[in-house]
């Protein structure tokens, strides 16, 4: 593991997702890895930290999540804009060499089945909380975060440092069709 | 209704939420209006457009949503940072004059029970799709978007124009404790 990647306390894990970044979802089952892009990832609870993710029935990643009962949510950066678009655009179903073609670099974390995408700003390892009705009717999956890590160059002391980090570390927020916004200026409410 | 507020076609409604902004949730039942802040709002489907929102059991807005079967999700702007913080911080349960104290301005849309917050960039009127297990176990509510509107000064032709609009129109993205980020630079993936 890279020296700059450190665990995030579970009670701060929601802060990784709270500002609504686009994510990459990875999973592994029976020797098959996959990674897909997902804009529809959202925090669901603080303690235990839980999240929701929408996984379309057409995706191979969904089958890997269902079979393995686990997945990793990770946050791509401005530097990974093209990678994110490619991972969202290609399907392992029709392109068996999807991961090689996108050039994604994977790493492994002990005790985590799913691969982690190198170069992301943060990673949340999740255990699937099976909810068959949600999964079937809404493509909605619920995960409980069992461990989280972040790159200290952009997230440390329990908070993001986009305002002082290299701009390449900014989170990306997909709108539609390859159009994204990077996260911007920090602002504090006086009434907080 | 203000001249600058126009309907958003339902097949484009997901684009209002896709970049993960913090939202305000409003509802009305039996003559009682309320508005709360919610960072955990997420698109769930394109057609029909659906979304999820997490409503804690302690909130009065939740009771209004459950009783009325409807609500409005709206997107506050940088200009409404303090208002958003105030609406998230105070509770109608303990402060009957909450709305007056926060200074929020409400407007009405024909056929929509819940009030709309003036000055927001977009509004999504939703019908609750009752899912008692999700609501009880996870505080998770599913809404189907029945109508949407946006202020053309920042969203028109089916997309956001943060990069050319007055910076006061930028969406805000809460992290924790009154710390927000505004949305930033527009970026397009070449591979799109």
Automatic annotation (TrEMBL), chains A, B:
**Which InterPro entries does the entry link to?**
Flavin_Rdtase-like_dom, Flavoredoxin, Split_barrel_FMN-bd
The protein's matches in SUPFAM superfamilies, at most eight in alphabetical order, are given as: FMN-binding split barrel
Name any cofactors this protein relies on.
FMN
Answer yes or no on keyword Flavoprotein: yes
Q: Which domain of life is it from?
A: Bacteria
**Alphabetical keyword list:** Flavoprotein
In Pfam terms, one family for this protein is Flavin_Reduct
**Domain spans labelled Flavin reductase like:** 15-162
Does the UniProt entry include the keyword Protein biosynthesis? no
> Per the similarity annotation, which family is this?
Belongs to the flavoredoxin family.
Q: Kindly provide the name given to this protein in its UniProt entry.
A: Flavin reductase family protein
Which species? Massilia hydrophila
């Amino acid at each position: 593991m890279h020296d700059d990647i450190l665990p995030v306390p579970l009670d701060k894990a929601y802060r990784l997702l709270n500002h609504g970044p686009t994510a990459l979802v990875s999973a592994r089952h029976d020797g098959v890895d996959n990674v897909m892009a997902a804009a529809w990832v959202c925090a669901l609870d603080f303690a235990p930290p839980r999240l929701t993710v929408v996984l379309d029935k057409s995706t191979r990643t969904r089958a890997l999540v269902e079979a393995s009962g686990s997945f990793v949510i990770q946050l791509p950066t401005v530097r990974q804009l093209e990678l994110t678009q490619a991972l969202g655009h290609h399907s392992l179903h029709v392109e068996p060499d999807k991961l090689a073609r996108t050039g994604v670099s994977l790493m492994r974390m002990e005790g985590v089945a799913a691969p982690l995408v190198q170069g992301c700003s943060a990673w949340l390892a999740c255990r699937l909380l099976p909810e068959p009705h949600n999964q079937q009717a809404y493509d909605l999956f619920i995960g409980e975060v069992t461990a989280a890590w972040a790159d200290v160059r952009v997230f440390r002391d329990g908070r993001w440092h986009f305002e002082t980090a290299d701009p390449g570390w900014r989170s990306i927020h997909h709108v539609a069709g390859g159009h994204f916004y990077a996260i911007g200026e920090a602002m504090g409410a006086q009434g907080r």
